[in-house]
Design goal:
Mean pLDDT: 91
Largest sheet: none
Distance between the termini: 69 Å
Low-confidence stretches: none
């Protein structure tokens, strides 16, 4: 009796007591197949994917479940972001980029603060594919939306160093120096790293005295 809700509830409760999280995820995925409403299917599949991600650290299976859920709600941005995270966790950078591109397209050219984070994630997906130039393009878009976002600036500056755009990197690290008083323990870059990286940019540009000064500050 696969549709018997009482039996399913007891099976899930027992699986949770035994910490059989793979079993719980399977029960949820099976229930999604038995459910008629698309919204219920999406909810069950997302819950199963969450268990795979948080309890089993299984990004690959989570991605499969979220792909299925996305088929029932193709315009759900939050769902696409979760799918992107699962792709990234399972080493599928190209699929992550495709999912994020769909989100960008859904905004229809509108510029919002939320979109800045999407561009940043898309840049990281491109970096996962070794496409640093495309990553820079996305980070520049994110920077224009959130010019004061330390995380965006630090990543963009690092990418500029990777592709030998030392002048742009130098400018960006200089802008981070202004933000040093705002840096906290969760900051993506430290005060010493800012000076060290700006020094590296100056060294590449042949500005040796500036480089020495920044390296000394970093030390």
């Amino acid at each position: 009796s696969p549709r018997d809700k009482v039996i399913r509830a007891r099976a899930r409760a027992l699986s949770e007591t035994m910490k059989d999280w793979a079993g719980v995820a399977r029960l949820l995925a099976d229930e999604a197949d038995l459910t008629e409403a698309a919204s219920d299917k999406v909810s069950l599949l997302r819950e199963a994917a969450k268990i795979c991600t948080e309890k089993l650290q299984d990004g690959a299976t989570a991605a499969v479940l979220l792909e299925k859920a996305s088929g029932f709600a193709p315009n759900d941005r939050e769902l696409l972001l979760a799918l992107c995270d699962s792709y990234t966790a399972s080493g599928r950078a190209r699929e992550a980029a495709t999912a994020l591109e769909r989100i960008v397209e859904s905004y229809g050219g509108r510029r919002t603060k939320e979109l800045g984070e999407i561009h940043r994630r898309l840049a990281q997906a491109y970096l996962g594919q070794g496409e640093a130039e495309r990553a820079k393009e996305e980070l520049e878009k994110a920077f224009r939306i959130e010019p004061g976002n330390v995380r965006v600036i630090a990543l963009l500056a690092d990418v500029c160093l990777q592709i030998n755009d030392a002048k742009r990197a130098q400018q960006l690290f200089s802008s981070l120096i202004i933000q040093i008083p705002k840096l906290g323990p969760d900051s993506p870059i430290s005060k010493a790293e800012i000076y060290a990286h700006r020094g590296e940019a100056s060294r590449i540009l042949g500005e040796k005295q500036k480089a020495i000064s920044d390296f000394e500050r970093a030390l």
